Amino acid sequence: MSQSAIYQWIKQKAIKQDAVSAALIMADERPAPTDWMPFLKTLFMVLGGLALAVALLFFLAYNWQSMGVIFKFAMVQAGLFLTVLGLWLIKTPAFYNRFNIRPKSLNLMTVIGSVVMVLLIGGLLALFGQVYQTGADPWQLFALWALLISALAITSGQSVLWVMWSSIINVALFLLADSRPLMLLWFNHSADFIWLFFMVNTALWMLLELLSKSSPIKTDKGFYQRCLMADDWGRQLQSLALLMCLTIMGFMAIFEWQSYALTRGLVVLLGLAGLYAYYRYHRPDLLFLAFWMMTLITLLVTLVIQLFDNVFNESVLLLLAILVIALTAAAVAWLKSIQKEWQDE
To answer: 112 CB contacts (<8 Å, ≥6 apart)?
Structure first.
């Protein structure tokens, strides 16, 4: 049952007032009373798994001075070993048949265990660097962390692991840009590092598009099918990161147009046009189009601010407020028309 259709029927009073609650439950817009217990179980499982991993790391940090080097490594490695052992155990038929674990709960336990394993790998790397004082730059820790979990993130088919992997990579890039190593001296200015973020996030976005359930690649290979991600929110967040890169490049093109208007401005225009065509016609995604409109409105308002920079006063502020309201209203109307168009198809 379509959620938008339910709201349309409620607005037209085609559904009686005393049946509105039941209709919203049927459309998955409101939880049923029986949904609360599974939700609480899921929430407590997630919080419990994360609490165990964080508790181990904080225990080490609090008792750092009173522990020996061997004991520190033993604790983290033991936690990592038990996590891997637990992930293997819950995958065995004897375990989930013995405890009658449903596939949905089993998948959730696998995700929680994988997240805990990723956190413990990062903690082990931080422990190694802290104990032995290798002198490495902080970006190398995050780069190595991302490298070690790359196979897990790509083959797991879980959006949460992909988002963690992408976040770690971007943190490594940020720290790399801050350290300005000799190998990247071909970047003439600190602002040029936006190209590095843009290229890496574009590569991550393209890879994730290939690993999504609606990927254009059609194959029956079991390994590729296991790598496909059922959830769309990871792909949407990755596309949002790409839009953020384009937004920053757009800011540079607007505020420093003498230096960046041609290169960055052209890339922003082509990037926004390409993403619009892709998510509008090839792989329809209303949420991404909302992100896209937010980026476009931000850049348009920024352009107006730059045009009135020399005469910035109360009248300009009023104009900006009216412009934001008008653009937002136009964006909402446009998104609603696209949604209706897709529903009618």
So the answer is: 45, 46, 49, 50
Contact present, 159 and 234 (Cβ < 8 Å): yes
How many Cβ atoms from other residues are within 10 Å of residue 297's Cβ? 17
Question: How far is it, in rounded angstroms, from Cα 118 to Cα 123?
Answer: 9
Structural domains of the chain, count: 1
Q: Is residue 180 part of a domain?
A: no
Helical pair 103-132 and 138-155, crossing angle rounded to 10 deg: 160
To which residue do tokens 């980026």 refer?
295
In a domain, 210, yes or no: no
Q: Which domain holds residue 13?
A: 1-30
The pair of structure tokens assigned to 144 is: 């190595």
Polymer length in residues for the chain: 345
Using an 8 Å Cβ cutoff, are 316 and 308 in contact?
yes
Q: Which residue has the tokens 């919080």?
A: 47
Non-local (6+) Cβ contacts of 293 within 8 A are: 331, 334, 335
CB atoms near residue 263 (< 10 Å): 13
* Dihedral Cα 263, 265, 271, 272, nearest 10 deg: 180
Q: Is residue 186 part of a domain?
A: no
Residue 165, judged by CB atoms within 10 A of its CB (0-12, 13-18, 19+), counts as: buried
pLDDT at 339: 83
Q: Which range is least confidently modeled, 34-48, 254-268, 327-341?
A: 34-48
Q: Tokens 């939700």 correspond to what residue?
A: 39
Please give the C-alpha separations between residue 31 and each of 13, 20, 139, 249, 253, in angstroms, as whole numbers: 22, 13, 43, 42, 47
Digit-coded pLDDT (tens) for 202-242 = 999 998 888 876 655 555 556 566 677 777 888 889 999 99
Taking residue 256's Cβ as centre, other Cβ atoms within 10 Å add up to: 13
DSSP state of 217: -
For residue 253, being part of any structural domain is answered with: no
User: What are 10-35's pLDDT values in tens digits?
Assistant: 666 666 666 666 666 666 566 667 76
Q: Which two tokens stand for residue 64?
A: 């750092």
Q: Does the predicted model carry a pTM greater than 0.85?
A: no
